[in-house]
Each structure stands twice: as structure tokens, then as C-alpha cells.
Design goal:
The complex is a heterodimer.
Chain A lengths: L2 E5 L2 E3 L5 E8 L8 E6 L5 E7 L8 E3 L7 E6 L4 E6 L8 E9 L2 E5 L3 E5 L2
Parallel strand pairs in A: 2-11
Antiparallel strand pairs in A: 1-3, 3-8, 4-5, 4-9, 5-6, 7-8, 9-10, 9-11
Chain B lengths: L3 E4 L2 E4 L5 E7 L7 E6 L6 E5 L3 E2 L7 E6 L2 E6 L8 E7 L6 E2 L3 E5 L1
Parallel strand pairs in B: 2-11
Antiparallel strand pairs in B: 1-3, 3-8, 4-5, 4-9, 5-6, 7-8, 9-10, 9-11
The chains are: A mainly beta, B mainly beta.
Chain lengths: 119, 107
């Protein structure tokens, strides 16, 4: 059974940093593209970024709103995905979801972790 | 960026009604579209990919159609457990983009 468990959310001041983790089980992380998607309180879904699989050299894509501030990485030995978030802004406040991609399509979602940027 | 526009933003229908949600893309995306369901307080769940293919385990009352710039999600017989917000997402080009969502309620 595929499981994605996010952690690392919390309260942070504007300008601060936070690293989110996504523990993956039930599949081999290196075989899959993985996305981060976020949802601000009461709002819709927003794609944050993607890391491709090992065959595609783990290359990444980012939304313009986070490019240069957020970095997606992986730890193959721990089957974990990460989202390093720097220079956080109030508008980054959201629930962040880790998503497994299968054949270019969003397939499995984690339960999410809440990040609150407050001043 | 490819803009995704859903209509309506919300709808209220009776149990057993047929419900249709539309999603329009600002440029052609062939069939690179997914439909996602999100129940209140829950994580999203993928329902349909490739515009019309059901994800494993999704009931057949859900169906999708369309290609290019216009897509529809249909619930053939609305049930209380279908109350949720539905999103479309295009994966035809980066950045991936979502529609703004359609909230479905029971009348």
C-alpha cells in the first residue's frame, strides 16, 4: 500500500526557513516523479514544484511564486522527499501535500502538513 | 501559463441528480487533464486522469470527457458522500495549474 506522510510543518516568521519531509512507503521513490502541492486556508490547490525520477536525473520544476526560494530534494536511502523553504512570506501559509506521480498523473496524496508564516 | 477555468463555482443538487462540471483551458492540452475530489477537512483524491480514465477504485458514477480546451466531469447520480470540492488540473505544460474548484452540495 502506498503511503505518503508529511512532517515538518509549523510556525515560522517571515524571512525564516523550514524543511518539510515526506516519508514514502509501498513503492520505490526513485522510480517516480514527485510533486509538492499546497493549499492556503480556505483556498484552492496550487502546484509548488516537481522532482523527476532517477532516469530523468531528479531534475526539478517550480512554480514562479516559489522559484529561487524553495528546493525539492530526495534521500533515496530513507525513501524520503523534502521541500526546503527559505525566505518565507505570509502568502506561503498553507497545507503542503506530497504527491506521487504515475505516468505524468497525480495519483497518491499525503495527508498534508500545515505551514504558518506569521509576523 | 495555462489558465484553467471551472464552472460553476458552486452548485446545489438533489440526491439522484446528474451533475456536470466544466473545465476550460486557455490553450489546448490534448487530454492532459485530471479531476480531483476534496472532501471537507480531507486530503485531495484523484478521480480521473487523461480526461476520461477512472483511477482504480473510483466508482463508475464518475465520468470525464473532453479534449483540447473543454472538459467535463459528470456524476451520474449524486449521493450525499459526493459532497466535496472538485478541481481540474492540467499536466500539458509547466507550470501545472488547477482550476479554482467547484463546490458540490446537496439541496
Amino acid at each position: 500500500e502506498v503511503q505518503l506522510v508529511e512532517s515538518g510543518g509549523g510556525l515560522v516568521q517571515p524571512g525564516g526557513s523550514l524543511r518539510l519531509s515526506c516519508a514514502a512507503s509501498g513503492f520505490t521513490l526513485s522510480d517516480h516523479y514527485m510533486d509538492w502541492v499546497r493549499q492556503a486556508p480556505g483556498k484552492g490547490l496550487e502546484w509548488v514544484g516537481r522532482t523527476r525520477n532517477k532516469v530523468r536525473s531528479y531534475t526539478t520544476e517550480y512554480a514562479a511564486s516559489v522559484k529561487g526560494r524553495f528546493t525539492i530534494s530526495r534521500d533515496g536511502s530513507e525513501n524520503s522527499l523534502y521541500l526546503q523553504m527559505n525566505s518565507l512570506k505570509n502568502e506561503d501559509t498553507a497545507v503542503y501535500y506530497c504527491v506521487r506521480i504515475v505516468n505524468d498523473v497525480v495519483e497518491d496524496w499525503g495527508q498534508g502538513t500545515l505551514v504558518t508564516v506569521f509576523s | 501559463d495555462i489558465q484553467m477555468t471551472q464552472s460553476p463555482s458552486s452548485l446545489s443538487a438533489s440526491v439522484g441528480d446528474r451533475v456536470t462540471i466544466t473545465c476550460r483551458a486557455s490553450q489546448g492540452i490534448r487530454k492532459s487533464l485530471v479531476w480531483i475530489q476534496q472532501k471537507p477537512g480531507k486530503a485531495p483524491k484523484s478521480l480521473i486522469y487523461g480526461a476520461s480514465s477512472l483511477q482504480s477504485g473510483v466508482p463508475s458514477k464518475f465520468s470525464g470527457s473532453g479534449s483540447g480546451t473543454e472538459f467535463t466531469l459528470t456524476i451520474s447520480s449524486l449521493q450525499p458522500e459526493d459532497c466535496a470540492t472538485y478541481y481540474c488540473q492540467q499536466y500539458g505544460g509547466y507550470p501545472l495549474t488547477f482550476g479554482q474548484g467547484t463546490k458540490v452540495e446537496i439541496k
